[in-house]
Amino acid sequence: MSVTVLNGPNLNLLGTRRPEVYGHTTLADVADRCREHAGRLGLELVFRQSNHEGRLIDWIHETGAAVQRGESIGAVYNPGAHTHYAYAIRDAIEAVQLPVIETHISNVHAREEFRHHSVVSPVAAGVVVGFGVLGYTLAITGLYELTRAQ
Ligand code: CA2
Q1: Mean pLDDT over residues 61-88, rounded?
Q2: Which domains does the chain have, with CATH numbers?
Q3: Is the CB of 22 under 6 A from ligand 1?
Q4: Per-residue model confidence (pLDDT) at position 17
Q5: Residue 125 in 3-state DSSP?
Q6: Is 61 marked active-site?
Q7: Which residues contact 51 (CB under 8 A, 6 or more apart)?
Q8: 16: pLDDT strictly greater than 90
Q9: Is 20 helix (H, G, I), strand (E, B) or coil?
């Protein structure tokens, strides 16, 4: 059984720019932490990042199909700025009924107005916001517990 972690645009820059907002941990470090955490729960990790909306949509479809086959519990997803406007991402999650925990490193509600609204949250099973990169492993645990309860 696997869990997928998806990352949207610019998250490849994590740990290299704006540490006051996003911290010093790189995305490769986040992947390592997630792999170790998933392993403790008996899950394999699929970890992906893209700056391209269509690629992310393809991975959402792929993960949805894996969930249908009973091979995946779903996805932890930091959609980056897509969060605030990308209706095609929201439609993709809804279309394949992908269990998603929307995850943000920063507290988006304490930032600019445009970050306060998410088009993804209405189709997410849960939302984790403002815990820094710890949010990724919290979200994996949350998704694991939610899907185990069903
Ligand atoms: O807080 C989050 O995790 C965000 O999803 C990050 C997005 C932002 O657009 C969302 O409003 C909140 C930005 C990802 C860009 O990441 C960077 C990392 C390092 C340096 C610059 C950008």
Answers
A1: 98
A2: 2-149 (3.40.50.9100)
A3: yes
A4: 87
A5: coil
A6: no
A7: 8, 9, 10, 12
A8: yes
A9: helix
| Predicted local confidence at residue 93, as pLDDT | 99
Residue 130 CA, closest ligand 1 atom number: 1
User: Is residue 68 classed as helix, strand or coil in its secondary structure?
Assistant: helix
Active-site choice (22, 77, 136, 144): 22
Q: What is the pLDDT of residues 84-141, one digit of tens each?
A: 999 999 999 999 999 999 999 999 999 999 999 999 999 999 999 999 999 999 999 9
Written as six digits, the tokens of 38 are 């998933």
| Angle at 94 (CA atoms; ends 119, 147), nearest 5 degrees | 105
User: Which amino acid residue places its CA nearest to atom 21 of ligand 1?
Assistant: 17
pTM > 0.90 = yes
Cα 28 to ligand 1 centroid, rounded to whole Å = 16
Q: Is 8 in the pocket of ligand 1 (CB under 6 A)?
A: no
Catalytic residue among 82, 104, 136, 144: 104
Whether the predicted pLDDT of 21 surpasses 90: no
CA distance 96 to 81: 22
